[in-house]
Amino acid sequence: MLAPKLEAQTPAKSVRALFLRVLESVLVVFVVASITFFALRLLPGDPALLILGDQASPEALAHVRAQLHLNEPLHVQYARFCFRLLTFDFGESLRWPGSEARTRVLLALRPTSELAVTSTLLGAIFGTGAAVLASGPWLGRYFRLVEWVLTALAAVPLLALAPLLTWLLAVRFHACALPSDVESGPSALLFGAALLAVPLGAHVGRVARGSLAEVSRALYLTTARAKGGRALRVWFVHALATVMGPVVTTVAAQLGALLGGAVVVERLFARPGLGSLMLEAYASRDLPVLEGAIVASGALFVMAQAAATGVHLLIDPRARPERTKSRA
Amino acid sequence: MKRALALFPLFALLVVALLAMVTSAFDPRFLVPEHAWLSPSRSHWLGCGDGGIDLLAAIANATTRALFMGATVALFGWVIGTPLGTWAAYRGGVAERLVSRTSDLVQAFPTFLFAMSVLAAVRTPTRMHVAVVFCVTAWVPFARLALAEARVLRRASYIEAAEALGASRTRVLLVHLIPGVLAPTSVQFGSSAAAVVIGEAALAFIGLGPRDGLSLGALLEQGLFAMTRAPHVLVATVLVLVATNAALLVSGRAFQSVRGSHVRRHR
């Protein structure tokens, strides 16, 4: 029998660990947002000049300073900033007066989440599929080929892979429409998500392959085979169940890369989303929107990581105390 | 011998880039509008990019700068992170937990996002600004590795012997522990530098790069813009980016000592 790898935890303990984890991650988002706050105000250079440019009139500069509360003492500004973080209210967009920064950020969240969720699903399926393919008996001695491909894909940066694949598929071989075409619709989402899924899937595949190699000689698989289970059933039903935990952990570890990748993909295909919003806000120094977008993406990241930890506890019976005891 | 071979791709890349930079008749910043997006030819080996810049000169310059920046940032991370991690492991207790948790948290947060939020405070990010931002997080993988290494090392009998002979804690740390950890942590050097090269290119790709445009990311952006009429720009830049990344990743193996074989590899 497979020895439980994770320490047996009581439910209260795991809930507490999860809570501490979330608390820590919230702290990280807060620290990063604070660094942005202080970098903008303490580094040489007037933020109002940065926003409006050198030709701005003194009145306009004074107006922006008042709007951003730059004329107040630093500690008052910081207190206001902390309050805004709590209420997720960053004030009015500078670039588009009349629209709330919060509204724009919330609108941008949807396309980015769609992209992230689709690519996570694709990557997990692709990665575990490849790992099972390499572990099962189907490829004979060519299973190393899958491992090599996974290693190579994991080493190629998305930044290089995405433009090249786009060019090859859309321009060179006309296999699909250029994803930035307006009429390409959901296929653009799928294409962008597939690009993001390649490095993710490669990492997942390598981890899953490692854990499958560990269980490949486990007695319960031999039992399953002895009872007449076909290879497909043995690997996909019995073996795959044990790698779900590591797969979820890997996906969680790669979330940061996924978020960075989403910015690149959105830029690549001119897709609307959090990344595009951040870039636009950065270019025009729309500070309220930029602050909101950074906090929102940080929060998204934190929530996804906490969710991954929760899912891991949920789907991996070895992480739960009752089952571990009854098995042992 | 075999280990030194791992440095060869990086060395070859650097030599080719430097040679191309020095021998090139073109200034990568010199615009010749009528040569814009020219295909590769006898005079322009890799063709021309936006505004008629010579692509070979531009790529060679960008690669050299990227490699230099990656190496500098990785060196900084090594010099800061290794003693920090070793000190924390030797000290134990609160210091160990603090460094360990801090590096966990910093590593968990996307560097890319962090860089973007800090760079918003400067008017035009220069190469220096970008390098400083990467330095803020560069120490983390080294500190984690050093922690793991020093936790084992601090129980070694030669450390006990040094303590028994009356060496001060500072002396044990500086003379006996840190030198022993420096070698195993240098394995991380290649992947850290590679991460910086890719990160810098990604920032330049989305428009947060240096003004002179001498970055692989800026060239990638050019190539993407003109991928229907001048695909050579995109293909050449992507290949060089992949080669640079791979060369740096492979070079890390040169530092892999026999002792360090149990060291966990980080991304």
Instruction: Identify low-pLDDT runs of chain A.
Output: 1-8, 323-328
Give the low-confidence spans of chain B: 258-267
In terms of quaternary structure, what is this?
heterodimer
How many H/I helical runs of chain B? 11
Rough outline of chain B: elongated
**Taking all residues together, what is the mean pLDDT of chain B?**
85
C-alpha Rg of chain B (nearest Å): 22 Å
Major beta-sheet overview of chain A:
none
Termini Cα gap of chain B: 26 Å
Mean pLDDT of chain A: 80
Helix content of chain A: over 70%
Largest interface: A-B, 46 and 40 residues
Helix content of chain B: 55-70%
Please supply descriptive tags for the structure shown above.
heterodimer; A: 328 residues; mainly alpha; MetI-like fold; 2 domains; 14 helices; B: 267 residues; 11 helices; 0% strand; elongated
What does this structure look like?
The complex is a heterodimer of chains A (328) and B (267). Chain A is mainly α and 328 residues long. Chain A has two domains: 81 residues, no CATH class; 216 residues, MetI-like fold, CATH 1.10.3720.10. Chain A has 14 helices and no strands. In chain A, helix 5 packs across helix 12, helix 8 crosses helix 10 and helix 12 packs antiparallel against helix 13. Chain A starts with 10 loop residues before the first helix and ends with a helix. Chain B has 267 residues and is an all-alpha fold. In chain B, 69% of the residues lie in helices and 0% in strands. Chain B has eleven helices and no strands. In chain B, helix 2 crosses helix 3, helix 3 crosses helix 9 and helix 9 runs antiparallel to helix 11. The two termini of chain B are 26 Å apart. The C terminus of chain B is likely disordered. Classes of the chains: A mainly alpha (328), B mainly alpha (267). The interface between A and B is large, with 46 and 40 residues.
Please sum up the structure shown.
The complex is a heterodimer of chains A (328) and B (267). By secondary structure, chain A is mainly α. Chain A has helices spanning 11-42, 47-52, 58-67, 74-87, 101-135, 143-155, 158-172, 186-215, 219-226, 231-253, 255-269, 274-283, 287-315, 321-327.
